[in-house]
Amino acid sequence: MSQHCYKRILVLSPHTDDGEIGAGGAIAKFISEGVEVYYVAFSSCEDSIPVGFSKDILKFECKEATRILGIKPENLILFDYEVRTFPEHRQEILDDMVKLNKRINPDLILIPSSNDTHQDHQVINREALRAFKKTSTIWGYEHPWNNLTFTTDVFLKLDDIHIMKKVNALEAYNSQDYRTYFDEYYIKALSYTRGSQVDFKYAETFELLRLLVL
Known about the structure:
Structural class: alpha/beta
Protein backbone atom coordinates (compact mmCIF):
# COMPACT_ATOMS: atom_id res chain seq x y z
CA MET A 1 0.00 0.00 0.00
CA SER A 2 1.13 3.54 -0.69
CA GLN A 3 1.85 5.79 2.27
CA HIS A 4 -0.89 8.30 1.60
CA CYS A 5 -4.32 9.24 2.93
CA TYR A 6 -6.01 10.34 -0.29
CA LYS A 7 -9.65 9.35 -0.65
CA ARG A 8 -10.77 11.40 -3.68
CA ILE A 9 -8.43 12.32 -6.51
CA LEU A 10 -9.31 14.68 -9.34
CA VAL A 11 -7.36 14.47 -12.60
CA LEU A 12 -7.60 17.65 -14.67
CA SER A 13 -6.77 16.89 -18.29
CA PRO A 14 -6.70 19.84 -20.72
CA HIS A 15 -7.50 17.50 -23.60
CA THR A 16 -8.72 13.92 -23.67
CA ASP A 17 -5.61 11.72 -23.19
CA ASP A 18 -3.38 14.21 -21.32
CA GLY A 19 -4.28 12.76 -17.93
CA GLU A 20 -3.58 9.19 -19.00
CA ILE A 21 -0.27 10.17 -20.61
CA GLY A 22 0.96 12.05 -17.55
CA ALA A 23 -0.57 9.94 -14.79
CA GLY A 24 -2.09 6.77 -16.20
CA GLY A 25 0.01 4.53 -13.98
CA ALA A 26 -0.82 6.59 -10.91
CA ILE A 27 -4.53 6.47 -11.73
CA ALA A 28 -4.42 2.68 -12.07
CA LYS A 29 -2.50 2.32 -8.80
CA PHE A 30 -4.75 4.62 -6.80
CA ILE A 31 -7.88 2.86 -8.06
CA SER A 32 -6.41 -0.54 -7.18
CA GLU A 33 -6.04 0.78 -3.62
CA GLY A 34 -9.68 1.79 -3.41
CA VAL A 35 -9.27 5.51 -4.03
CA GLU A 36 -12.14 7.31 -5.79
CA VAL A 37 -10.71 8.90 -8.94
CA TYR A 38 -12.48 11.54 -11.01
CA TYR A 39 -11.29 12.53 -14.49
CA VAL A 40 -12.14 15.81 -16.21
CA ALA A 41 -11.17 16.60 -19.81
CA PHE A 42 -11.79 20.16 -20.92
CA SER A 43 -11.57 19.58 -24.68
CA SER A 44 -11.96 16.65 -27.08
CA CYS A 45 -9.94 18.54 -29.73
CA GLU A 46 -12.55 18.28 -32.47
CA ASP A 47 -10.60 20.74 -34.64
CA SER A 48 -7.47 18.57 -34.56
CA ILE A 49 -8.80 15.12 -35.44
CA PRO A 50 -6.87 13.24 -38.15
CA VAL A 51 -8.59 12.68 -41.49
CA GLY A 52 -10.79 9.60 -41.53
CA PHE A 53 -12.08 9.87 -37.96
CA SER A 54 -15.31 11.41 -36.73
CA LYS A 55 -15.04 14.79 -34.98
CA ASP A 56 -16.13 13.32 -31.64
CA ILE A 57 -13.88 10.23 -31.78
CA LEU A 58 -11.75 11.35 -28.82
CA LYS A 59 -14.77 11.38 -26.52
CA PHE A 60 -15.40 7.71 -27.26
CA GLU A 61 -11.71 6.85 -26.99
CA CYS A 62 -11.45 8.68 -23.66
CA LYS A 63 -14.42 6.77 -22.28
CA GLU A 64 -12.74 3.48 -23.21
CA ALA A 65 -9.30 4.53 -21.95
CA THR A 66 -10.59 5.66 -18.57
CA ARG A 67 -12.68 2.48 -18.28
CA ILE A 68 -9.53 0.42 -18.78
CA LEU A 69 -7.82 2.35 -16.00
CA GLY A 70 -10.78 1.62 -13.74
CA ILE A 71 -12.45 5.03 -13.57
CA LYS A 72 -16.20 4.78 -13.09
CA PRO A 73 -18.26 6.15 -16.03
CA GLU A 74 -20.04 8.54 -13.69
CA ASN A 75 -16.65 9.93 -12.58
CA LEU A 76 -15.72 10.98 -16.13
CA ILE A 77 -16.60 14.57 -17.02
CA LEU A 78 -16.10 15.94 -20.55
CA PHE A 79 -16.29 19.64 -21.35
CA ASP A 80 -16.38 21.12 -24.85
CA TYR A 81 -13.86 23.96 -24.91
CA GLU A 82 -12.19 24.39 -28.29
CA VAL A 83 -8.58 23.27 -28.47
CA ARG A 84 -5.95 26.05 -28.26
CA THR A 85 -8.51 28.65 -27.11
CA PHE A 86 -8.30 28.17 -23.34
CA PRO A 87 -6.62 31.56 -22.72
CA GLU A 88 -9.80 33.18 -24.05
CA HIS A 89 -11.94 31.22 -21.58
CA ARG A 90 -9.96 31.51 -18.35
CA GLN A 91 -12.87 32.72 -16.24
CA GLU A 92 -15.30 30.07 -17.47
CA ILE A 93 -12.71 27.37 -16.84
CA LEU A 94 -12.05 28.71 -13.34
CA ASP A 95 -15.79 28.76 -12.67
CA ASP A 96 -16.03 25.11 -13.76
CA MET A 97 -13.18 24.19 -11.42
CA VAL A 98 -14.74 25.97 -8.46
CA LYS A 99 -17.94 23.99 -9.04
CA LEU A 100 -15.96 20.75 -9.29
CA ASN A 101 -14.23 21.53 -6.01
CA LYS A 102 -17.54 22.01 -4.23
CA ARG A 103 -19.05 18.91 -5.81
CA ILE A 104 -16.14 16.47 -5.40
CA ASN A 105 -14.09 17.93 -2.54
CA PRO A 106 -10.90 16.20 -3.72
CA ASP A 107 -7.86 15.55 -1.54
CA LEU A 108 -5.38 15.49 -4.42
CA ILE A 109 -5.42 17.26 -7.79
CA LEU A 110 -3.30 16.12 -10.76
CA ILE A 111 -2.65 18.86 -13.34
CA PRO A 112 -0.12 19.73 -16.06
CA SER A 113 3.20 20.95 -14.68
CA SER A 114 3.94 24.63 -14.23
CA ASN A 115 6.58 24.52 -16.99
CA ASP A 116 4.34 23.05 -19.69
CA THR A 117 4.55 25.17 -22.85
CA HIS A 118 1.14 24.33 -24.35
CA GLN A 119 -1.22 27.28 -23.98
CA ASP A 120 -4.19 25.14 -22.93
CA HIS A 121 -2.09 23.22 -20.40
CA GLN A 122 -0.84 26.50 -18.94
CA VAL A 123 -4.39 27.71 -18.36
CA ILE A 124 -5.43 24.49 -16.61
CA ASN A 125 -2.36 24.72 -14.39
CA ARG A 126 -2.88 28.37 -13.42
CA GLU A 127 -6.63 28.20 -12.88
CA ALA A 128 -6.34 24.97 -10.89
CA LEU A 129 -3.93 26.71 -8.52
CA ARG A 130 -6.52 29.42 -8.02
CA ALA A 131 -9.43 27.02 -7.56
CA PHE A 132 -7.81 24.38 -5.34
CA LYS A 133 -4.80 25.92 -3.56
CA LYS A 134 -6.64 26.29 -0.23
CA THR A 135 -8.35 22.91 -0.25
CA SER A 136 -6.21 20.25 -1.94
CA THR A 137 -2.71 18.92 -2.40
CA ILE A 138 -1.65 19.53 -6.03
CA TRP A 139 0.79 17.55 -8.16
CA GLY A 140 1.92 18.50 -11.67
CA TYR A 141 2.31 15.62 -14.10
CA GLU A 142 5.00 15.20 -16.71
CA HIS A 143 4.78 15.70 -20.48
CA PRO A 144 8.46 15.73 -21.52
CA TRP A 145 7.84 17.04 -25.07
CA ASN A 146 6.04 20.09 -23.63
CA ASN A 147 8.24 20.80 -20.61
CA LEU A 148 11.11 23.26 -20.79
CA THR A 149 12.19 21.79 -17.48
CA PHE A 150 10.62 19.53 -14.88
CA THR A 151 11.05 19.21 -11.12
CA THR A 152 10.91 15.61 -9.92
CA ASP A 153 9.57 16.16 -6.41
CA VAL A 154 7.25 13.14 -6.02
CA PHE A 155 8.04 9.60 -7.16
CA LEU A 156 5.13 7.17 -7.18
CA LYS A 157 6.19 3.52 -7.28
CA LEU A 158 4.38 1.50 -9.93
CA ASP A 159 4.14 -2.21 -10.63
CA ASP A 160 3.97 -3.99 -13.99
CA ILE A 161 0.18 -4.18 -13.80
CA HIS A 162 -0.10 -0.39 -13.46
CA ILE A 163 2.19 0.22 -16.42
CA MET A 164 0.31 -2.27 -18.58
CA LYS A 165 -3.00 -0.65 -17.72
CA LYS A 166 -1.52 2.66 -18.82
CA VAL A 167 -0.27 1.09 -22.06
CA ASN A 168 -3.65 -0.53 -22.72
CA ALA A 169 -5.52 2.66 -21.93
CA LEU A 170 -3.45 4.68 -24.39
CA GLU A 171 -3.91 1.97 -27.03
CA ALA A 172 -7.61 2.87 -26.92
CA TYR A 173 -6.72 6.14 -28.67
CA ASN A 174 -6.60 4.74 -32.19
CA SER A 175 -6.85 8.23 -33.64
CA GLN A 176 -3.60 9.22 -31.90
CA ASP A 177 -1.44 6.14 -32.40
CA TYR A 178 0.88 8.00 -34.79
CA ARG A 179 2.25 10.01 -31.86
CA THR A 180 5.52 8.69 -30.46
CA TYR A 181 4.48 9.17 -26.84
CA PHE A 182 1.63 6.67 -27.27
CA ASP A 183 4.15 3.95 -28.09
CA GLU A 184 4.50 1.15 -25.52
CA TYR A 185 8.28 1.37 -25.68
CA TYR A 186 8.22 5.08 -24.82
CA ILE A 187 5.76 4.61 -21.94
CA LYS A 188 7.82 1.83 -20.38
CA ALA A 189 11.14 3.57 -21.03
CA LEU A 190 10.09 6.78 -19.27
CA SER A 191 8.60 4.89 -16.32
CA TYR A 192 11.72 2.73 -16.08
CA THR A 193 13.97 5.80 -16.22
CA ARG A 194 12.03 7.55 -13.47
CA GLY A 195 12.00 4.39 -11.38
CA SER A 196 15.76 3.95 -11.72
CA GLN A 197 16.31 7.35 -10.12
CA VAL A 198 14.95 6.03 -6.81
CA ASP A 199 15.57 2.27 -7.13
CA PHE A 200 12.01 1.40 -8.17
CA LYS A 201 11.38 -0.75 -11.21
CA TYR A 202 8.82 1.73 -12.54
CA ALA A 203 7.62 5.14 -11.40
CA GLU A 204 5.75 8.22 -12.45
CA THR A 205 7.09 11.47 -11.13
CA PHE A 206 5.30 14.71 -10.29
CA GLU A 207 6.04 18.32 -9.50
CA LEU A 208 4.84 19.20 -6.01
CA LEU A 209 2.81 22.40 -6.34
CA ARG A 210 0.89 22.31 -3.07
CA LEU A 211 1.03 20.05 -0.02
CA LEU A 212 -1.65 20.14 2.64
CA VAL A 213 -0.86 18.16 5.79
CA LEU A 214 -3.90 17.51 7.95
